[in-house]
Amino acid sequence: AQRVTQPEKLLSVFKGAPVELKCNYSYSGSPELFWYVQYSRQRLQLLLRHISRESIKGFTADLNKGETSFHLKKPFAQEEDSAMYYCAINTGGFKTIFGAGTRLFVKA
Amino acid sequence: GAVVSQHPSRVICKSGTSVKIECRSLDFQATTMFWYRQFPKQSLMLMATSNEGSKATYEQGVEKDKFLINHASLTLSTLTVTSAHPEDSSFYICSAKTSGGRTDTQYFGPGTRLTVL
């Protein structure tokens, strides 16, 4: 079965420091991977997806099929990046499977 | 961007009563809608997937007679929690996709907080 693992429940970094939110998935084929973000008191929203190969708000994520990973990175964290981040996978069906989420806290 | 609304945003009800939550796609047609449940400080748990005009597909462990889902139109899906009990208290979130394509973005509603007394 498809599964998404986010090993860190909480990640705390200082402003300006690099940040990496880890995501590993289990699927033998070619999945579609996403990162969703939920800021305080806001709804869940799409941050980026691997097929777009884009950088959103300074964040990037590269799909590594060998390691089955899709880690989210940003070279210099900002306080406004503090939020809950969810990695998600879609393997061709209707539904998307979400990881447990990582809460990022950027300290001033 | 596409907007999904939910109504009500919060509801308090007595044990044994039924509660209906509406999910609407405001500016697009949602062929597929999803209902999630989120417990405090936990991830989203997919409850069911519904396609317009057909019966919802429930995830394992979710009682279909307890959580009634109706997706009668391309812009509206409803979740009815029947005979609610305190353990049904939770944050319910719906989302919608424009089609079944796996690259399509899911747009999320703001959620509904249900408290059962």
Could you walk me through the main structural features you see in this protein, from its secondary elements to its overall organization?
The complex is a heterodimer of chains A (108) and B (117). Chain A is an all-beta fold. Chain A has no helices and eleven strands. Chain A has strands spanning 3-5, 10-14, 19-21, 24-26, 32-38, 45-49, 60-61, 72-74, 83-90, 97-98, 102-107. In chain A, the strands form three sheets. In chain A, strands 2, 5, 6, 9, 10 and 11 form a six-stranded mixed sheet that branches. In chain A, strands 3-8-7 form a three-stranded antiparallel sheet, with no helix packed on it. With 117 residues, chain B is mainly beta. Chain B is built from no helices and eleven strands. In chain B, strands 2, 4, 5, 6, 9, 10 and 11 form a seven-stranded mixed sheet that branches. In chain B, a hairpin with a 5-residue loop joins strand 4 and strand 5 (44-51). The radius of gyration of chain B is 13 Å and the shape is globular. Chain A binds chain B through residues 32, 42-46, 49, 51, 86, 90-101, and chain B through 32, 34, 42-44, 46, 49, 51, 57, 93, 95, 97, 100, 102-103, 105-106, 108-111.
Cα-atom radius of gyration of chain B: 13 Å
The general outline of chain A is globular
Low-confidence region ranges of chain A? none
Strand content of chain A: 35-45%
Question: Could you give the count of β-strands of chain A?
Answer: 11
Give the biggest sheet of chain A: 6 strands, mixed
Structural class of chain A: mainly beta
Work out the strand percent of chain B: over 45%
How many distinct helices of chain A?
A: 0
Question: Could you give the distance between the termini of chain B?
Answer: 37 Å
Which chains have the largest interface? Answer: A-B, 21 and 21 residues
What oligomerization state is this entry in?
A: heterodimer
Radius of gyration of chain A: 13 Å
Number of separate helices of chain B: 0
Give the overall pLDDT of chain B as a whole number. 89
Q: What is the structural class of chain B?
A: mainly beta
The mean pLDDT of chain A is 91
